[in-house]
## 1
Amino acid sequence: NYYTISGRERRHTIGGYPDWTATDARKEARRLRRLVDEGGDPLDDIAAERAAPTMAELCDRFESEHLPRKRPSTQREYTSILEKHVRPFFGNHDKVADVTFSEVDNLHRRITAAGSPYRANRALAVVSKMFVLAERWQMREANSNPCHSVERNHESKRKRYLSGDELGRLVNALAAHPDREAVDIVRLLLLTGSRKGEVLGMRWADVNLGSGIWTKLAADVKQDTDHVVPLSAPARQLLSEIRARRTAREKVLGEYV
């Protein structure tokens, strides 16, 4: 029995025989007494531990509050990482505040050993962002991200260019292809060097054929700022042809190229 600082009487049961001997129980009672004398509350500590947010709860909040702000492709990738790697590794009961560097490093090494070094790096980035948000959401102490100092796998930049023969065959295939819109998409990819999703999302409002500028908005690209792309003469000619055909066919230009 003990009294809290506020004067509340409480009873803490250490355990029962034979799991606890009288000697061990006395040692534990002395430890608890010192804790109470210092202003602590053993029962309150136990209750706080039980109520502490778990990794499963952090994953749920991450998916419901953070992922909707990301592009659909990013949402799919992050959800896959959570379901295949993060949730199974930490389980339903691991506490957010208790996760250590060693555990995160073990997760990263496990995914790497399975033959997915790049995937391991992506998983580490997701978990690191989760712990940044956990600190903001007061699920964990500030400046305690366990992902810091985990050594990432080396990634080689992958570059692939069409050879002269390949480019010639592609041009011939485009000339013979019946789907004019699909052909225009591929040609814009070749002429601008942009990603497929960026070309598919190109809006007329972002294209200035007079100055030869295409402004990619920050929300549509991986950078955090707008990205201005100079359009070559062939790219401007192709866009002019697309605009003329669209206007002649549908009378309305529409939002997207």
## 2
Amino acid sequence: SWEFLLPPGQASWIAILPAVGDQGQQGSCTAWGVGYAMASAMNDRYLSSPMTDIRSDHAKTASPADLYAKLVTLESVPCGNGTYIADALDILIREGIDSIANAPYSASVCSPITTGNNFRLAGYQFLTPATDMLKIKIASRAGLIVPIAIKVYSDFMNFSGAGVYTHSATDTSPLLGYHCMVVTGYDD
């Protein structure tokens, strides 16, 4: 029976995430989601000493600036463009990224690549199909931070406040692109 795999109605790992940041006008959401949020949280959960506070200690927080610099170089795109989640995960495996203390983020300027590699991954696995909510819940229940990308339209850019973003069926605007975020838990 697979019933033992069914997660309870909720799980949350928000407490192990760094403070909310702001990507500004750069297309660096992948670096924020995969690097800053996921790599910082996984490092804190599995490698740091107990009682580490990644919300205030920038040496224990992964740099979105360093990951973004490595991504735009790898993908040969100009600073400001969006990047791919798989490439970010591969960078974390191959070379790692530096801390935000050593590579601070600027919303107006792309940072140079550093040689720091304090934040690394041993591997990753794609959850397929990407819409399989049970697999995402099982990963969340296991304490994993799951990076995702969603399609965004103009109504996303105008979304604010509490609630869950859902693309309006009446919005006929063209696809603007994709936005990387992380799943940090769920509540049925």
## 3
Amino acid sequence: LISVIVTSYNHEKYIQQCIESILKQRGNFNVEIVIGDDCSTDGTMSIIESYSEKYPQLIRILPNTANLGITRNLKRCFDACVGEYIAICEGDDYWIDEYKLQKQMDRLEKDKDLSMCFSPIILFFEDTQKFEPYIKPSGENEKLTSKDLIDFNYIGNFSCCMYRNSAIKRLPEGIFDLYAVDWIINICCGEVGGIGYLADYMSVYRKHRSGAWTGLPQHGRRSRLLQLVDEYDKVLNYRLHDSFLAYKEI
């Protein structure tokens, strides 16, 4: 069983494309779609509910009584997953390969020492309606480490990833008490096992002004990460201190 997490907040314009791209997945697996909407104030929930009514055997909506914020909303979604593998498609992103789940599951089935795997993403800039491939790892590197991700975040966002549920359960205590973006969660997974890389472009990361992270100016994102690095370093008990220190000095 593969659990697919959809996190959403005011994604009325995008959520249909996101869910449709998940429903188009093909392969030799069973799937559940776990949706955690964080108290959207637009029409996102009505769209989600219409899909849940149409596909009650596939879609499970988590109840929401208060706005949790990005990190705690993701945590409750992780906790709700029962699949051996977990994939994420954030509500404003979408997948473009119908065999994404199958390919990533096959990689994790083949290489048991991996905690997760990912594929390169295509950036979609909503303001200009242009697509651009994100930077890939160089050479034929099929496996990355936590240090590699500190040097450069080749993954870029959650929607291109698949995790072993067992690896998610081993994330450090306290990680979800911070603002835990994909970067630190994937670094932590790299401490549990290898990070597998597949070269196929299979997901689109939408960059728009209302995005929680992409809505920040570039210098704002950099400044925010620098504020968080020391907290991330502490959560990892300073095992990667030299790498984090080098990152801050770039």
